[in-house]
Specification:
Elements: H1 3-8, E1 13-16, H2 22-26, E2 38-41, H3 45-58, E3 62-65, E4 78-81, E5 88-91, E6 94-97, H4 103-110, E7 115-116, H5 127-133, E8 150-156, E9 162-166, H6 171-177, E10 186-193, E11 195-196, E12 200-207, H7 212-225, E13 230-237, E14 247-254, H8 259-270, E15 275-283, H9 285-288, E16 300-309, H10 314-327, E17 330-335, E18 357-366, H11 371-385, E19 389-390, H12 401-407, H13 410-423
Helix pairs in contact: 7-8, 7-10, 10-11
Length: 437
């Protein structure tokens, strides 16, 4: 089937290299699109199914993109762009969302209903990729992961069929979709149960970078003892020129509108001698979401390592500081626990239920730098933390087999492989953290 024939079917918008606007259309968040032969923007589930069947029939590698932040949705075959499927429908607390919707759009649509969903931190991230890979964000302690609010999906399978999947219809497939990433098909509608939320208390605490170790200790204590309503992140960045000095900032969100309660929960952080400034504001949940933009100029290479840490002992925190110094990059830590930890580990394929902190170090270099040049930095991280925790796939830019084995415990990974063998035995959906059937 040619591109022209594909256009004549139910597929939706189809672009090739010969079409005006193709280069702009394939551009994502950073250099993630690759060099596809076709870009397809379906208007409905049948259009998605038609595109999947076309890719299989023509032997084209398939890439699937929602918001475009993923580092590995690129392809040299057919890029399936889901931004045309961006509807948000609210019926009571049931919210049906298209995979191409962005989390900022979802937060804004739910606010008039005094509702919200646990999402990531960023307005421009797509609903699909974040949800299927977990969805650790500002409400992780209050409500759990984004995928924990999921009650059903509409799915296009590797056979090009459209299915309704939930806990009663194909329950094992539903289990795998919640944490298995894009391995099982293309979700064309997400059905969530939203939570009541009038607003949040959000803000930042700026600290002297010399106080990093003490701040990490307090953050770890908050992850274990703070009320579920409080989630906090720590970001330590090196100096990046005279206009960007070294910095240390803790950002917080309290699920509710009581600033007195929020301040009481944050008291251990606010009491640190290294605190330079702080601000807390009552506002809408959407106001707490960030809106980063791709960096201007030449592309940057990034080396990152992350871990879902169950051990936050003094030695473990010392190792984090050491790894951060060796990377000469940024250190990011987020409090976990709370509601996310009370969901049984076997309930979903996401495997970090007992983690206390999500920690990540990242180093950036201009231009395209071979992976081997980052190897010493990765080795330092592994030496510092060893096998202290699993990795969080949504923060992982590499798709190697080692990453997949570090994302899931052995029993979970084998269960995922069994589902993959049933629903995608030819591994059509391989542009991801690939669970090989």
């Amino acid at each position: 089937m040619t591109a022209a024939e594909l256009r004549s079917g139910p597929t939706g918008s189809v672009l090739t290299h010969a079409d005006e606007g193709f280069a702009e259309a394939i551009a994502g968040y950073g250099p993630a699109a690759g060099s596809p032969r076709l870009l397809v923007r379906p208007a409905d589930a049948e259009g998605v199914a038609s595109a999947v069947r076309h890719a299989i029939a023509e032997g084209l590698r398939l890439g699937v993109r929602s918001g475009g932040h993923s580092a590995f949705t690129g392809t040299d075959g057919l890029l399936l762009d889901l931004r045309g499927l961006a509807g948000i429908e609210v019926a009571g607390d049931l919210v049906c969302i298209g995979p191409g919707a962005l989390w900022g759009e979802v937060a804004a649509a739910l606010a008039p209903h005094a509702l919200a969903l646990s999402s990531g931190d960023t307005r421009s991230v797509g609903v699909a990729g974040l949800t299927l890979g977990g969805g650790v964000g500002w409400m992780v302690r209050a409500w759990g992961l984004a995928l924990d609010a999921l009650v059903g999906v509409q799915l296009v399978t590797a056979a090009g069929e459209v299915l309704e999947v939930d806990a009663d219809r194909e329950p094992e497939l539903f289990w795998a979709l919640r944490g298995g990433g894009g391995n099982l098909g293309v979700v064309t509608r997400f059905d969530f149960r939203a939570h009541r939320l009038e607003g949040v208390v959000h803000g930042a605490i700026d600290l002297d970078p010399a106080g990093l170790r003490d701040a990490l200790g307090v953050l770890a204590d908050l992850a274990r003892t703070a009320p579920d309503e409080l989630t906090a992140t720590l970001l330590a960045t090196p100096a990046m020129g005279p206009e960007m000095p070294e910095s240390l900032r803790v950002t917080t969100v309290w699920a509710g509108t009581d600033p007195v309660a929020a301040r009481a929960a944050l008291a251990p952080l606010l009491a640190l001698d290294s605190v330079r400034a702080e601000s807390l504001t009552v506002g809408a949940y959407a106001d707490a979401l960030e809106d980063p933009h791709p960096p201007e100029g030449p592309p940057m290479s990034m080396a990152e390592e992350n871990a879902l840490l169950t051990d936050v002992s003094s030695d473990a925190l010392d190792a984090l500081v050491g790894a951060h110094e060796a990377f000469a990059g940024m250190l990011f830590c987020r409090t976990l626990g709370g509601a996310a930890s009370r969901i049984p580990a076997e309930a979903t394929a996401w495997a970090g239920r007992d983690a206390v902190l999500l920690a990540m170090v990242a180093a950036f270099r201009p231009g395209e730098i071979p992976e081997e040049e980052f190897a010493p930095l990765r080795a330092q991280w592994r030496r510092a933390l060893g096998d202290a925790g699993l990795v969080y796939g949504n923060f992982r830019t590499r798709t190697d087999a080692d990453t997949v084995t570090r994302m899931y415990p052995p029993a979970t990974l084998e269960r995922l492989r069994a589902v993959k063998r049933k629903w995608d035995p030819a591994n059509v959906f391989a542009g991801n953290h690939n669970v090989v059937p």
